[in-house]
Amino acid sequence: MTAAKKQQTKAGSAKASAELRLMKEAKIRDLIGDAAGDRLEASGVLYRDGVFLVVCDNLPFFIRISGELSPKAPENGALGTNRPAKATSKKASPKTKESPKAKGQKGKESKGKESKEDATAQAEGYEDLAYDPSGERHFTLSEAVPVKPKGFRARVQEYDARLRPRGTAVLDFALSDANKGLEGLEWVERGGTGYLLGLCEGNRCTGGKEGRKPGGGRIQVFRRGTGRWDRTDTIRLPASLPFEDYSSVSVRDGRIAVLSQASSALWVGRLSPKKWQVDEGTVYSLPTDDKGRAVYGTAEGVSWISRDHVVVVSDRAKKGQENDHYRAKDQSIHVFLIPSGG
Hints:
The chain has four helices and 20 strands. By secondary structure, the protein is mainly β. The protein has one domain: Neuraminidase (6 Propeller).
């Protein structure tokens, strides 16, 4: 994970922007108690049907939170097959029925014992998550895993409507750095075909100094293949974007949002309905303190709620005095309003 930096890149350096307006927020642990432990490195969030589904990069299960961010909501809790015993709740899984399409896919899925790869995937945390509404399938993302004979690939875990694991597959895109892989995941359907969008963490999909040089944001496009997800195209984010890194992506009604942790900002643009292209869009800073310092320096996941509202989740702040001003907002969930014109 990219640590939020002392000196934040000012989001207003391209396409002058306003700040997002905070509507409500809460510490995740205040909402779910100790159901998932006391270390909640939130990395991805999905809004659906009035509920937030959250994943953490240090936990192998899902967290569900009421859209009202109420600590008394019965929806709140930890979900998934491999959560610790203390995380068990009366509402251990959603009660959404599987669609006919999802049922029809069962014949293609492994039955009985899970594979060693599936078990390994379930033991790790997740960087982001996506949802296919047609097939009622959830997908989680592992940033970079080693593959034979050498190199790294991101891996996707697939779950059915009840969040039961249905297998894993790699995204066929070579990664040069195990710590700078794919960081965001989204589902887009076009012409009856579903695609996964994988957001590279570093500029030009690289790490190191080159990866921190703004202007090279990339989203890789994947379509389901045989035993893997095949890359079919690349979305190039605007070269004017001042972002040092990219942490999450969300698409709704043709609008695309990309979050940057290091730059503490959100870019909102439009995704072409026919081509894998975006417009210049607009950059919005996350709110700052009265000294103009970034306080959302661990923002890690984003999802659309409505046309002018997004939800963001924040990772755990790193140790050190230089990160103290992030702690009030870390391991939290936040709802923001996008100013008019976005």
